[in-house]
Design goal:
The chain is mainly beta. It has no helices and eleven strands. The N and C termini lie far apart (40 Å).
């Protein structure tokens, strides 16, 4: 059974930072590209960033230069380092691989 577990969300002030983690099924997670998505209230889910199995990263323009995606295959974990957070980054963040989704973690950016 494929499992994805996100963590690391929370409440942060504008300009602050958070690091999200996504832990996947041992042994297979490392073989796949992994994406981070987010869904704000009343909006559709949107792609944020992704990383290939070999570590090549890609970003949506809205987060480029502020967010960094990385992975530690030894830990079957993908990270999303989020810096210079803005109120418009507020959303539930999900990780995804091979059609499988985690439960999401809430990120709220507010003063």
């Amino acid at each position: 059974q494929v499992q994805l577990v996100e963590s690391g969300g929370g409440l942060v002030q504008p300009g602050g930072s958070l690091r999200l983690s996504c832990v996947g099924s041992r042994g297979i997670f490392r073989l796949f590209a992994v994406g981070w998505y987010r869904q704000a209230p009343g909006k559709e889910r949107e792609w944020v960033a992704s990383i290939t199995s070999t570590g090549s990263a890609h970003y949506d323009d809205s987060v480029k230069g502020r967010f960094t995606i990385s992975r530690d295959n030894a830990k079957d974990t993908v990270y999303l380092q989020m810096d210079s957070l803005k109120p418009e980054d507020t959303a539930v963040y999900y990780c995804q691989f091979s059609g499988n989704w985690g439960q999401g973690t809430q990120v709220t950016v507010s003063s």
